[in-house]
UniProtKB/TrEMBL annotation:
Source organism of the structure: Faecalicoccus pleomorphus
Function: Couples transcription and DNA repair by recognizing RNA polymerase (RNAP) stalled at DNA lesions. Mediates ATP-dependent release of RNAP and its truncated transcript from the DNA, and recruitment of nucleotide excision repair machinery to the damaged site.
UniProt lineage: Bacteria, Bacillati, Bacillota, Erysipelotrichia, Erysipelotrichales
Top enzyme category: hydrolase
Name of the protein described by the UniProt record: Transcription-repair-coupling factor
Domain Helicase ATP-binding: residue ranges: 599-760
């Protein structure tokens, strides 16, 4: 590495940048990155690098950030229209993080920005610093004051902190997630004093590390003092009065007044949704240069000025539009004048230079990465020293390839810090991007983007959800209430039934109630208390469940009677193939590959289902199983539901098997009849190892020499006739089915021994969440969004779900973007035409695809990273989730815009749905609801679509329980029942007060988790966790844990009962314990604790009587002694 930097630091361009006398132009981005980093290493100084666009700034940062730590990204949208409505929260977070770092220390840095961010008005740096917080243990700090301060600093309040720029408060705890730290901070109070500060894991919510003090900054740059807010309100009021005089129509006046008043309310609550008010507050004109004094470098002064001109023109146009729509007051000078900045500062400009010794050159075009590795290595210039900048696994592949092919290459392997390769003087640096398909690495958004993750519990209960009570049927849950009965306060689930009848279920009996889960849009019919209709519904569903259980068990019993091929155990070749995977497999992939291979080694035909979301790695699992088959001399058929999918899988398999010598063929309608004839001959002769194709493969003309494995992608998408042919094939060969639709875990458990299932739950590494926005449809905004994606060389899906007007929409977009090719695809077109259009779009022949929901599944187009959905309120959540999954398939940030008609009155259901959809970005509740719908779809795919109606009648959970029991009966196994538990018959007073937590979800979760615990050790651990989460546990909550401890005690072997009487507690042992117990030792132990404790023997059972005190301390001490010494 040092050799490379030393060589670059002698570059004339680097010397020029350092001396501020010369710079360079016409650079490719990696060259620019190298020269910047070299200049910084030669002389560490502050550099502000201004790129013409947000995209170029992000791309330069991608290349600089792996090479040095002292670099920050500071970008914002080029369009104020997009920024006001649909700016990325992650971009905003990155910008705030950068400002905070500039304030915190004076160390030299490179900051990379675009023109819009460089000229943006910012708060006074002194005021920004004043809004940073310092906290330490034993510091006097009022909780409410801190919460208000966090609110003012831009932190959003949640129940639990799970992402940056949020805070939460429970009991004596405040949690804060600052952008400056990898984990959130937990501050615990004792009255008005900070008792402890600690970092905790946002996923488990458990403490990681205790610290003595913490410093953190704001979560926004929209920072206002109360005086500033007052000044803004006064100025806005004056402007509003002037504008109202000019307006003639009362409805226009009312609209403007309503909008301004709403804006002022959000400003007062420190949540200014309208960013335009920064321009009323920041009148002194601070900008980035006030936070970092240093050399300013423009990629091109002309380009920067052009970008500023466009920014200014677009801003004025947008503001005029808002004024005309009566939603804003006029204010047009919204950015610092770039020309004034240029006049006041010495700008270093990149201009053309001709010194060949200073040129850093690009190497292989990226598309060559699709070639076999050996071809690329052979193309390297042998006269230069080669440095491979690769991950360990990739380096091993290159070394192995060189060794096998006896290549004598003067090379060195260095750390994988170069985003892409380059050539300079007598050396070449080669990165993974030049050698491997889809190779990328990025430090981008390391503080703000959390990689996607699967939520463990998607069935959390919320107010107004529907629930199913085992005895009383379907009701609506209204929350948790605390009721007093005979002087005791207890918590109850409040459920309402048809006709307004109410049921209060003690939370100690919560297991009788489960969430009613059905597909979105299914009508819910409440049960009636006192009626036998619910019992009849359960009986009816039970009958159907018995039928399907019998069919499933019979089907797989027949299958088990057939003799299949038992594949041999793995050999060295199998291990080599699996290790050649370019990426680190996820734990789920490793487990699935292992489990499926175990099934293949059995002498019965395998029928395995592999489920996993798009991009979670199902294909790699299938590839490893396919290799096992061909290594054993068997053939593999890979069946795909569409032509485009078959093409994509074919390319993947070709690349993955390139070094194995396997013969691979493709059959779809783009393959000529002449080629198909030859393929059928080769297939029958055994000359083809893997054949990939559409339903054409099911044709009788395709005969195999020795078919060993059938892989089916999305089996549910094939027609009835094709499914029957697949069923015939399943009876004698191993089958692996791939599905992007998840299967409920309870259903998987029920099918153990009936059908084997694997699920991939780990998202791919470096997958960024898709930025999701809801907005009113406006032509100017759509134009901005599409222009932005096209400017970064990307493609756009425009979903318009009305076939009758789809061509009008496409023509309109063609007129707006005459240089872009626009295509149309909808379900009424011929299947062949749709496939050709999709194929052309995938190959980049079209930049915009106007389409209907036919794109919902089965497309993997890496370059399409923007999707616009018109009338988004008309789609279901799970449908939108899958449509949105068409973008964001690689490391590029992807965008999804959900358009609704302007001024449309949305139903409450539609509003909730759109709010949930927006949360998809964070994999929040919208994700959970989508998963709910998809698991129901998955259950339907597996069990048959006719079951959907029966699932809706009783809810998914109860349906799957009934099915599980029925399958057990048909398999001759005992039906699993909930374990009957003894209860300690004690006066129970525990409940969860509002002061401890106001959140019903927290209360229910505590009761549920406590009830599930079955060991003293786990109970103690959970109690510690609750104390970690909420702070000091009050007496009422402590009693809930105490009650569970007593229940666990009475369920131990040897204990018959524990009862509370008026003046005493009575503990009775069973006969077996009484017969074998050391009575003298027991008597002495009790006597040592308290002489008032008595022992008697009645009906061969030892009975201990313990006197009652004010609390249960004596009882607890007695039982703990018995538990430790006698049980």
């Amino acid at each position: 590495m040092e050799k490379i930097w030393n060589s670059l630091q002698d570059n004339d361009v680097v010397k020029g940048i350092v001396s501020s006398k010369i710079s360079c132009g016409n650079l490719f981005l990696m060259e620019e990155a190298l020269l910047l980093v070299s200049s910084f290493k030669k002389e560490p100084k502050n550099y502000i690098v201004v790129k013409k666009s947000m995209y170029e700034a992000q791309q330069l940062y991608k290349r600089v950030s792996p090479l040095m730590d002292e670099v920050l990204l500071f970008v914002m949208e080029e369009s104020l229209r997009v920024q006001a409505i649909a700016s990325s929260p992650e971009d905003k977070d990155e910008m705030i993080y950068s400002l905070t770092q500039l304030i915190k220390d004076n160390k030299p840095k490179i900051i990379i920005c675009n023109v819009a961010a460089f000229t943006r008005y910012l708060p006074d740096p002194v005021f920004f610093k004043e809004n940073c917080i310092h906290l330490e243990i034993n510091q006097e700090q009022d909780m409410n004051t801190l919460k208000k301060q966090l609110n003012r600093m831009g932190y959003s309040r949640l129940n639990y902190v799970d992402r940056p720029c949020t805070f939460a408060s429970r009991g004596g705890i405040i949690d804060v997630f600052s952008l400056e730290y990898d984990h959130p901070i937990r501050i615990e109070f004792f009255d008005t004093e900070i008792e402890s500060i600690r970092f905790f894991d946002e996923e488990t919510q458990r403490t990681i590390e205790r610290i003595d003090s913490i410093d953190f900054g704001p979560a926004t740059d929209l920072l206002f003092t109360d005086e500033q807010i007052s000044e803004i309100q006064q100025e806005v009021q004056k402007k509003l009065e002037k504008e109202l005089v000019l307006l003639k129509l009362e409805e226009d006046k009312e609209m403007l007044q309503d909008h301004i008043e709403a804006d002022m309310r959000s400003l007062e609550s420190y949540e200014p949704e309208n960013i335009l008010y920064i321009y009323f507050a920041y009148t002194k004109g601070y900008h980035l240069f006030d936070y970092l004094q240093g050399k300013i470098i423009f990629s091109s002064t002309e380009e920067v000025q052009q970008s500023f001109k466009k920014l200014n023109e677009e801003t004025i146009s947008y503001m005029q539009e808002r004024v005309q729509d009566h939603i804003s007051l006029p204010k047009y000078m919204l950015f610092q004048d770039i020309h004034m900045i240029i006049q006041k500062n010495n700008i270093l400009e990149f201009h053309e230079f001709l010194d060949e010794d200073s040129i850093v050159s690009e190497i292989f075009p990226l598309e060559k990465a699709a070639l076999p590795l050996i071809n690329q290595l052979e193309a390297i210039d042998r006269h230069k020293k080669v440095y491979f900048s690769l991950e360990t696994k990739q380096a091993k592949q290159v070394e192995a390839c060189m060794f096998e092919n006896e290549m004598n290459l003067q090379c060195e392997f260095i750390e994988p810090c170069f985003y892409e390769g380059f050539s300079y003087q007598n050396m070449i640096v080669i990165s993974a991007r030049e050698l491997f398909v889809d190779a990328y690495h990025s430090k981008r958004y390391q503080k703000t983007f959390k990689e996607g993750r699967i939520l463990e519990n998607v069935m959390e209960l919320e107010k107004n959800d529907y629930v199913v009570h085992e005895q009383y049927g379907i009701g609506q849950y209204l929350g948790i209430v605390t009721r007093e009965n005979k002087g005791r306060k207890l918590d109850y689930l409040h459920v309402v039934y048809r006709g307004g009848d109410e049921l209060y279920v003690p939370l100690s009996q919560f297991q009788l109630v489960r969430k009613y889960i059905s597909k979105e849009g299914a009508g819910v019919k409440l049960s009636q208390l006192g009626s036998n209709a619910w019992q009849k519904t359960k009986e009816k569903v039970n009958q159907r469940v018995e039928e399907i259980a019998a069919r499933l068990v019979e089907l797989y019993a027949l299958r088990n009677e057939n003799i299949g091929y038992a594949f041999p155990k793995d050999d060295a070749l199998q291990k080599e193939f699996e290790e050649a995977f370019e990426y680190e497999p996820t734990p789920d992939q490793i487990k699935a590959i292992h489990d499926i291979k175990i099934e293949m080694e059995k002498p019965k035909p395998m029928d395995h289902l592999l489920c996993g979301d798009v991009g979670f790695g199902k294909t790699e699992v299938a590839m490893c199983c396919a290799f096992k088959a061909i290594a054993s001399g068997k053939q593999v058929a890979f069946l795909c539901p569409t032509t485009i999918l078959s093409m994509q899988h074919y390319q993947t398999v070709l690349h993955r098997f390139e070094s194995t010598g396997a013969n691979i063929a493709l059959v779809n309608r783009f393959v000529s009849q002449k080629e198909i004839t030859q393929i059928t001959k080769d297939l029958k002769a055994g000359n083809i190892d893997i054949i990939i194709g559409t339903h054409k493969l099911l044709n009788k003309s395709f005969q195999y020499k020795d078919l060993g494995l059938l892989i089916i992608d999305e089996e549910q998408r094939f027609g009835v006739e094709h499914k029957e042919k697949i069923k015939e094939m399943k009876s004698s060969i191993d089958v692996l089915s791939l599905s992007a639709t998840p299967i409920p875990r309870t259903l998987q458990m029920s099918l153990i021994g009936v059908r084997t299932i694997s699920q991939l739950n780990t998202p791919p590494a470096k997958r960024h969440p898709v930025q999701t926005y809801i907005m009113e449809k406006r032509g100017s905004l759509i134009q901005e969004i599409i222009a932005r994606e096209l400017a970064r060389g990307g493609q756009v899906f425009y979903l318009y779900n009305r076939v009758d007007h789809i061509h009008t929409t496409a023509n309109h977009l063609s007129n707006l973007f005459p240089d872009a090719n626009v295509a149309v695809a909808h379900g009424k077109m011929a299947k062949e035409t749709i496939e050709e259009t999709m194929m052309d779009f995938a190959q980049g022949k079209y930049q915009i695809l106007v389409c209907t929901t036919i794109i919902e599944t089965g497309l993997d187009i890496a370059n399409a990273n923007t999707i616009i959905i018109e009338n988004a309120d008309k789609f279901g959540l799970s449908q939108l989730y899958q449509i949105r999954g068409r973008v964001g398939r690689r490391d590029k940030i992807a965008y999804c815009y959900l358009m609704i008609q302007p001024n449309k009155e949305l139903t409450e259901t539609a509003q909730k749905r759109l709010k949930s959809i927006k949360e998809f970005t964070r994999l929040g509740s919208g994700y959970k609801i989508a998963m709910r719908d998809l698991t129901i779809r998955g259950a339907g795919d597996l069990l048959g679509p006719q079951q959907a109606g029966f699932i809706d009648q009783v809810g998914l959970d109860m349906y799957l329980e009934l099915l599980g029991n029925a399958i057990s009966r048909h398999k001759g196994e005992p039906v699993s029942k909930a374990k009957e538990e003894k209860r300690a018959m004690l006066d129970f007073k525990g409940h969860i007060p509002q002061q401890f937590t106001e959140n019903d979800g927290d209360k229910l979760s505590i009761y549920q988790q406590v009830r599930k615990i079955d060991t003293f050790k786990d109970l103690k651990s959970y109690q510690q966790r609750i104390q970690d989460l909420f702070g000091k546990i009050p007496k009422e909550v402590h009693q809930i844990f105490e009650q569970r401890w007593f229940d666990l005690f009475v369920n131990q072997k040897g204990i018959e009962s524990l009862k509370e009487e008026e003046k005493q507690y009575v503990l009775t042992f069973d006969e077996d314990f009484s017969a074998h117990c050391d009575g003298i030792k027991l008597f002495e132990t009790m006597n040592d604790i308290n002489r008032a404790i008595s022992l008697t023997l009645k009906k061969q059972k030892i009975i201990i009587t313990i006197p009652k005190k004010k609390n249960k301390d004596l009882l607890m001490e007695t039982l703990k002694n018995i538990e430790e010494k006698f049980l």
